[in-house]
Predict the structure.
Amino acid sequence: MDFENAGNENNQNQLSHRQQHHHHHSQMNANSALPLVRFLNCLEKAAVGIVYYVDCTVKDELICRKEAKLMQYKNIVEQILLNPKEYHEVTLQLSATKCLCKFMLLSLELCETHAKMLFDLLKNSTFESVRVAIMVLMNGFYLKYPLAFAAYSDDVYGCLRDRSDNVRLAALKTISNLILKEMVKPNGQISEIAFCIIDKHTQLATLATSFFSELAKRQHGETLFNILPDIFSNLVGVKLDEQRQLNEEDFKSVIDFLFKYIFDDPRACRDLAYIMSKLTFNEQSLKGLLHHYDNYRDKLFDNDVYQSFLTILDNAKKNLGAKPDLKVLIDALSTSINKERSPNGILIAVQQAQQKTKQQPKAARAGGAKKGKQTTSRSKAKAKQSDDNDDDDLKENDGDDDGDGNVFKRPMRKEPKVQTISRSKRGADA
């Protein structure tokens, strides 16, 4: 027993010694990485200073010369990022990543040369903070070199599927900011943002809904309208993997949200119906078409819209075969569509259109009255802010007011009127 106890004590002592050695070794690594982190931070600031404050001719000498020390330091940054197992400190990897991004902003050549390396880090880095930092700094790249990352747009949108909520949130903020500032044209990949509408992360879902509501205001809704067919075709599941297939409830939620922004322009309805007739509908999309019947039933009195929906039904019969369940679904959709083409259905649609036309002037007058009230309240708020001498907030409000086309001034105080009495009258009173 004494021999066994002695053996156990010896093992425990060895284990504690190993733990102390490992802890001491990790502290040594952290302490040894600290000077390098500080050096990279200084190097990053130097690159930023060169970008904004150094003359172009001097900048070329600092970058293009082979013996330039700045470019030699760049090799150190590359060595750290290419060997994450050796340089495994999070702060070191983050500082090196930021430093690389600032170096890439020095010239278009550096940006294009290191683009693949940067996006490899974005996809493969095990450090969440590194991936977040790259997405945040992506705004600067698109602002200065908008065409440098054209070949990597799939990787940028792919960050919306990242395993980290923080990375996806940073990606959504960056992408939505670039699109709304018209630095990136929206295309079919914007369907990745549509998936975020039903995301479990509340902040992510809220930001996605705000993005589409803001996009619907651009060019009277034409910007969103032009990309809706691509969004719908990507949502139906043809191009999706099994992990990203939408269930029926989520699909309906996304479609319900996006259809709110389809305005009542007859030309837009005809164009959308024609585009839908060119799509391939599966069973799920046909169910969605029947579920959202109330959204387009009043448009079926238009002959072009009606013919487009007949084309959808004919193509569905050819492509989906003669399954009993599908036949019932197609027959129900056909009955509903033809019902609106009856004389009674057309009469109801015309009456509804007339009611909307009568209500529009009233809504316009009501909106004008509300706008006047808002203008008064804004002018008061503007006058109050000018007294507080808050320069930052003042600049932001001036930017918003210029966009509205209104110029606000401090309201002038009205001097009280002094009643004047003529000399003759004063003499009479005396």
